[in-house]
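Quick one: co-fold with S-adenosylmethionine.
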Amino acid sequence: MYDQSHICRADHMAVSKASRTLRRRKRKGKTSQIPYLEREYIALSQWMKRNKFVQKRPYLSAAIFNSTGRGLMTRHSISAGSTLVSIPHHLLITPHTVLTSVGQHFTKWDKQLSSQQAMSIFLLAERQKQESSFWFPYINVLPKKYTTPAFFSETELNLLPQTVLSKALTEISKVHTAFKLATDFITCCWPELAPVLTYSDFIWSWYSVNTRSVYYKHDLCDQFLADHNYIALAPFLDLLNHSYDANITASFNVKSNCYEIQTEDTYRKYDEVFISYGNHDNTHLLVEYGFVLPNNPNDVVEFSFDSLLDIALRMKLKHLKEKRSVLLTGQFDRKLCCCSDGLSWNLQVVLRVLCMDWTELKNWKLVMQGGIISDQNELLTRTMASTLIKTSLGMCKENLTKFQGLHCDTMTEHERLAYDFICIERTTLQSALISVQS
Ligand SMILES: C[S@@+](CC[C@H](N)C(=O)[O-])C[C@H]1O[C@@H](n2cnc3c(N)ncnc32)[C@H](O)[C@@H]1O
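Sure, here it is.
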């Protein structure tokens, strides 16, 4: 299967912007491939073959796609129900692999690491062994860097809208904590590894695990790790990119002793083949995986509870203290967001309650029935919803001014991501505004 494994530029992904879904986009384009052999893919292929990886039809091979970057392309048409890939158990890197191969270091420690920390440290240790590591052919095809915000410079981080920035900073601080714990562990129990444990090396291995591992439930009941984080790195399979509309099942097949992906989708020859990483919005995709999707049906724009109170204040709405307290007690201060079709349930409740008069407020729970409270309340609610969305559109405009002077062709990959994120957010807000005004 994999001796033809080469990277080809699959220009068939460059298609009309007007196509509504990724899948349709994928199918409209013409196919033109410029194959070029890459030593490391041949090495990965040969290593997998030597280790009993047998690729059956459909043959997939690595390719570069215009809209998604490196991914897997099918060399045959695929029908629903087909098994896309099947990776033998001994080629998976799991917390169990880590403990069976270097567990002596973990047993020495009186604290516990998470599975992700243990896998990240293992990857670092194997990377520094170079060719002498069993995993070298796999590690050699891993990206050299990632595009999650942890890799952004401070200036690049500041291009992100506030809501994403605060999630990115929370995530970055989690990685710092993991790095600190890894440093303590290595200093104490694996000092030979200390020279390779720089922060930049650690975030490479952390995000190799974070962006590429699959869910794999196994029977490891080990007291040396802090969780039962059922994760595994699956070479080759982890070249599959995400599409929100990919229908797949991923599971371990005990009969074949392989981790397998089955698709319920159909593909034509030379299509890119996708899996779904979950119903994630663009903030999650950016913070956890380092990419964003235009036309993502799971995308939302979030608003803070305080920003709603600010608008209520500006609209001179009354009894805000009481309304705030009612809403906080009902935990309506979260999931305040809109998508292109309209507003989330919590946001509708908050807007309606903030727009109530005193008599309506006494029976505020009527809002839960979802009907109109009164003509006056409905009018104010719509006005407030429009103001909220227009305010956010204003913030998008302001955020985009930070890119003045940067040219599309010379932007860094991180700048481009932040720019795309804001443009997609603006499109979502514009559609939401039309929907609340209609
Ligand atoms: C499991 S890997 C998939 C293979 C990866 N593209 C590679 O070259 O190794 C996950 C990463 O691929 C990229 N990715 C996945 N789906 C994508 C998509 N639809 N568009 C752009 N990038 C995507 C992101 O960088 C993500 O962190």
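If it helps, The first helix runs from residue 22 to 28.
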